[in-house]
Amino acid sequence: MARVVVDVMLKPEILDPQGQAVQRALPRLGFQGISDVRQGKRFELEVDGPVDAAALARIHELAETFLANTVIEDFVVKVEEGQETRKAEEAAK
Amino acid sequence: MARVVVDVMLKPEILDPQGQAVQRALPRLGFQGISDVRQGKRFELEVDGPVDAAALARIHELAETFLANTVIEDFVVKVEEGQETRKAEEAAK
């Protein structure tokens, strides 16, 4: 079973009030040197079977029609190795 | 200027109703073969100056105290090359 990640972010030209709120709060909280923050969504899809070109094409279509609003959002589809992902998550604990 | 990405996901043992709603909707919409969906947040931070070990340590602290609720969420801090990111975004358009 493979994991496919879809990252959905507001397009650069779209105002991101959520990200701005985070960015403005940082100096108050003692974190300097962050000039911009954008906040988006991350979807982790567990795909049954192999992630071949056909599966990726379907996931791309899914992301385009259902996960992202392509009028205001960009999305990126990435395949992640299950093993790597778990290691990264372990490291963050 | 470098971009640092913080991915915040609910811990695996925490129920994710948002992800479940997406997963249950997929067969209705004609997408089979996705056995699980988890939805999380992605923060893109633009960092002034070099992203060295000290800067990463600060961003790790920032993510831990402010971006993620570590009782229920895991987070991963990743450095992204500006160039690569732009290319990936271009590809998604």
From TrEMBL, chains A, B:
Coiled coil: none annotated. Gene3D superfamilies: Phosphoribosylformylglycinamidine synthase subunit PurS (3.30.1280.10). InterPro entries: PurS, PurS-like_sf. GO terms for molecular function: ATP binding; phosphoribosylformylglycinamidine synthase activity. It comes from the Bacteria. It holds the Pfam family PurS. One of its GO terms (biological process) is 'de novo' IMP biosynthetic process. Keywords: ATP-binding, Cytoplasm, Ligase, Nucleotide-binding, Purine biosynthesis. The keyword ATP-binding applies. Its EC number is 6.3.5.3. It is found in: Cytoplasm. One of its GO terms (cellular component) is cytoplasm. Pathway: Purine metabolism; IMP biosynthesis via de novo pathway; 5-amino-1-(5-phospho-D-ribosyl)imidazole from N(2)-formyl-N(1)-(5-phospho-D-ribosyl)glycinamide: step 1/2. It catalyses: N(2)-formyl-N(1)-(5-phospho-beta-D-ribosyl)glycinamide + L-glutamine + ATP + H2O = 2-formamido-N(1)-(5-O-phospho-beta-D-ribosyl)acetamidine + L-glutamate + ADP + phosphate + H(+). Belongs to the PurS family. Part of the FGAM synthase complex composed of 1 PurL, 1 PurQ and 2 PurS subunits. HAMAP family: PurS. Part of the phosphoribosylformylglycinamidine synthase complex involved in the purines biosynthetic pathway. Catalyzes the ATP-dependent conversion of formylglycinamide ribonucleotide (FGAR) and glutamine to yield formylglycinamidine ribonucleotide (FGAM) and glutamate. The FGAM synthase complex is composed of three subunits. PurQ produces an ammonia molecule by converting glutamine to glutamate. PurL transfers the ammonia molecule to FGAR to form FGAM in an ATP-dependent manner. This is Phosphoribosylformylglycinamidine synthase subunit PurS. The gene is purS.
